[in-house]
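Predict the holo structure. Ligand: hexanoyl-coenzyme A.
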Amino acid sequence: MESPFKEDALKGKVALLTGGGSGIGFEIALQLGNHGASVAIMGRRKNVLDSAVASLHYHGIPCIGLEGDVRKKEDAVRVVESTAKHFGRLDILVNAAAGNFLVAAEDLSPNGFRTVMEIDSVGTFTMCHEALKYLKKGGLGKEPSCGGTIINISATLHYTASWYQIHVSAAKAAVDSITRSLALEWGTDYDITVNGIAPGPIKDTAGLSKLKPEEISSTFEKMPLYKLGDKWDIAMAAIYLASDSGKHVNGMTLLVDGGQWLSSPRH
Ligand code: HXC
């Protein structure tokens, strides 16, 4: 689908995406690149990163892949430093790395709960924390008065409650809270905007593939637009937030779910 944004909307910007090798993270990387950004993608699996980098290069996007796990502080430090060193600056951080599996609360071990909290919530905070010195106004390659932006990929599970996803729901609730707190503190002190995107059910993603067919069809019934979203929809929301179009939006988690949030869970 053709983008409604100008091709050079992000010209000269450098973006780092966790979980950028696949799924929604990869689509955001592709679209940021298509709109002029240089892109670094971080992920745990080398083969996935290699193929994502090859695909981004094929589209003419300046890109590097950096192996790392957002749960490890030393990986976060190395990846942020490597990105800034390679491209000379960092303007956009997208936290898209996430862990998920369906499990009843009574069958989930505390370590299973902790694992998803560590990837989604602590990982998001760690990456933001390490990227701050580059994102803030006056950071490497930046104007003294102009900071960068952070986009945290969230979910809608915790708006009500979602079966068998107590860990992800808690983790994404924390992510939304992190978004607001950093928007307040870092917007004030460093001219950094911090926002989130909460995708609803999106076609061809790991999140959706875990649902049973009957769960997907009942999802349709709850959506005023009566269709699944595309990864492209999430990427366009990211372009809006990362480009000048979204420069006065701060602390907001933008819902991109076809209006599914309007309905209560049907179980
Ligand atoms: C119950 C499980 C489990 C499962 C792991 N655990 N998988 N418990 N059911 N299916 C438990 C383990 O028993 C262990 O606890 C703990 O979690 C850590 O497991 P490990 O396998 O050692 O961890 P690790 O290798 O680090 O892998 C973590 C992972 C990861 C979260 C399971 O493999 C992963 O992220 N996979 C899915 C990635 C994914 O789908 N990403 C897209 C997310 S979609 P014990 O107690 O035994 O030590 C998304 C959208 C949300 O986020 C909205 C959807 C609608």
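Residues 23 and 204 are 8 Å apart (CA to CA). Residues 110-135 form the longest helix (26 residues).
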